Amino acid sequence: EENPDLQYEYFNAVLINEVDDEGNNVELGGEFILEPNDHFNNLSVNLSLSVVQVPTNMYNKDPDIVNGVYWSEALNKVFVENFERDPTLIWQYFGSAKGFFRQYPGVKWHPDEHGVIGFDCRNRKWYIQAATSPKDVVILVDVSGSMKGLRLTIARQTVSSILDTLGDDDFFNIIAYNQEIHYVEPCLNGTLVRADRANKDHFREHLDKLFAKGIGLLGEALAEAFTILGDFNSTGRGSVCSQAIMLVTDGATEMYDDVFEKYNWPERRVRIFPYLIGRESAFADNLKWMACANKGYFSQISTLADVQENVMRYLHVMSRPKVIDHEHDTVWTEAYVDSAMKDKSGPSLMTTVAMPVFSTKNETNQGILLGVVGTDIPLQELMKLIPKHMLGIHGYAFAITNNGYILMHPDLRPLVNKPLQICY
Ligand SMILES: *[C@@H]1O[C@H](CO)[C@@H](O)[C@H](O)[C@H]1NC(C)=O
Ligand SMILES: *[C@@H]1O[C@H](CO)[C@@H](O)[C@H](O)[C@H]1NC(C)=O
Ligand SMILES: *[C@@H]1O[C@H](CO)[C@@H](O)[C@H](O)[C@H]1NC(C)=O
Ligand SMILES: *[C@@H]1O[C@H](CO)[C@@H](O)[C@H](O)[C@H]1NC(C)=O
Ligand SMILES: *[C@@H]1O[C@H](CO)[C@@H](O)[C@H](O)[C@H]1NC(C)=O
Q1: What is the largest distance, in Å, between two alpha-carbon atoms of the chain?
Q2: Is 2 part of a structural domain of the chain?
Q3: Does the residue 270 lie in any domain?
Q4: Is there a single domain that holds both residue 292 and residue 364?
Q5: Which of 3, 64, 152, 293 has the fewest C-beta atoms under 10 angstroms from its C-beta?
Q6: What percent of the chain shows pLDDT beyond 70?
Q7: Of which family is this protein a member (predicted)?
Q8: Residue of 37, 38, 44 to test ligand 2 pocket, by largest number of atoms within 8 Å of CB
């Protein structure tokens, strides 16, 4: 049961062992014993407790967070038992759908030079991959005259945040519309591309070139989006799973029910997620109606600070098919470098294995995504599982992920000149 008045002190990863001017422990801090540990690359850790990180842009005593942190404390015991059973384990964690991140063993986090902790577990690849089914997404951005100025800035940020939530299993395209439709990357007209890092970065550059003028006619843009999505699915390309249209606009003057009638009803296979940009809500009703009529979710984004939290709401809706099917798929990320976990030969390569967590409460017959659990695995541990005697003298083993990335190979090593960062 959620208790809105719950008062509960937890160990906040940033605040532990911090003292104020008078030498007293700060709230949510407190004394937290840390000892260097060889298995964790001599980092100072606490092997009996986990710590909780909350992104800087969220209130760390928000009732939602405090309640989640409270019940997830039961994980401490599980983490400790797991580690006792399998001492090769390193970090174990739970990323909550509310935004907090519980990590074992307990370790101190330090903000960046601006005093900020940008890490939001819900934006990480392992989280998104585990929480959502693969999806095809067409993003429609209104670039009519009324979007000039701040609204366009917020709209760009919204599109960019949507891109953050897409991963290698997803396909997308972005169409800007006023009285005409403009693919933001004209070379990729009429198709969808995989949401890998290179494609997303490429589209982000094009977003800066958008400018607002003319009048917004949404009907044609919707028809185009439905056409591409339909094409893709019927030819078995794309994710062959869920499909969605994200609509970023400051309002719609019509309901466009004729378009939905033609392309999406009665099955409603394509979900619509309208994001109303700006403080006014004069034209909100049509957008709300579109969301309801197409199994989506309506959000209003008034300021730049609202963007991320609002964008991520759609993930709950898109994870519903997984909840209903009780799919507990494990996902494996591509190999990445973790500079905090070096070995003799330099920073080590890791993969993350993750799994979604659903509420099994009976009153919610659809279930609710609570978050994602995961653990990091050094690739060397996987290498040890290869039966060497079966390979022959010049034989070697390698593995690639289902998205075509190399997971392990004897010659795979980090590029030393690239800036390294911890990426869970
Ligand atoms: C972890 O920290 C708590 C709180 O400071 C302390 O009571 C406990 O002994 C520590 N555990 C270890 C293994 O150091
Ligand atoms: C950790 O520190 C010990 C002693 O200072 C040292 O012998 C060991 O090699 C270090 N381990 C790592 C992984 O750096
Ligand atoms: C897409 O490209 C085709 C031919 O390459 C062109 O005929 C069509 O007008 C383009 N559509 C858009 C919306 O740019
Ligand atoms: C994609 O096509 C399959 C088979 O034709 C159909 O069952 C499925 O519902 C379609 N999915 C969407 C999102 O249109
Ligand atoms: C939930 O409902 C199912 C069947 O309706 C029942 O078997 C199960 O015991 C219930 N679980 C809880 C936790 O009440």
Answers
A1: 73
A2: no
A3: yes
A4: no
A5: 3
A6: 92
A7: Belongs to the calcium channel subunit alpha-2/delta family.
A8: 38
Taking the CA of 45 as reference, the closest ligand is 1
With a cut of 50, say whether residue 30 has pLDDT above it: yes
Nearest CA to ligand 3 atom 6: 189
In a domain, 27, yes or no: no
Identify which ligand lies nearest to the alpha carbon of 48.
1
Q: What is the CA(242)–ligand 3 centre distance, in A? A: 26
Q: Report the CATH number at residue 189.
A: 3.40.50.410
Look at residue 263 in the predicted model and tell me its pLDDT.
Answer: 97
Joined together, the tokens standing for residue 55 give 């992104």
Q: CA–CA separation, 99 vs 93, rounded Å?
A: 13
Measured from the Cα of 186, ligand 3's closest atom is 14
Taking CA 357 as the corner, what is the angle to CA 352 and CA 362, rounded to the nearest 5 degrees? Answer: 170
The residue contributing the CA closest to ligand 3 atom 5 is 189
Q: How many domains are contained in the chain? A: 3
Is residue 372 domain-shared with residue 385, that is, in the same domain?
no
Q: Is any ligand 3 atom within 6 A of the Cβ of residue 221?
A: no
Q: Evaluate if residue 364 carries a pLDDT over 60.
A: no
Secondary structure class of 402 (helix, strand, coil): coil
Higher pLDDT, 24 or 239: 24
269 lines ligand 4 (CB under 6 A): yes
Q: What's residue 423's pLDDT?
A: 43
The token pair that represents 40 in the structure block: 């964790």
Do residues 223 and 359 both lie within one domain? no
What's the domain range around 51? 35-120+332-377
Looking at the fold, whether 356 and 302 belong to one and the same domain comes out as no
The answer on pLDDT for 417 being more than 90 is: no
Confidence at 144, pLDDT banded by 50, 70, 90: very high
Contact 354, 374 (CB under 8 A): yes
Between β-strands 101-104 and 51-53, what pairing exists: parallel, antiparallel or unpaired?
Answer: antiparallel
**Tell me, what's the pLDDT at 283?**
83
* Per-residue confidence (pLDDT) for residue 411, from 0 to 100: 83
Q: Is the CB of 96 under 6 A from ligand 4?
A: no
Confirm whether 21 is domain-assigned.
Answer: no
Asked if residue 42 has its Cβ within 6 Å of ligand 2, the reply is yes
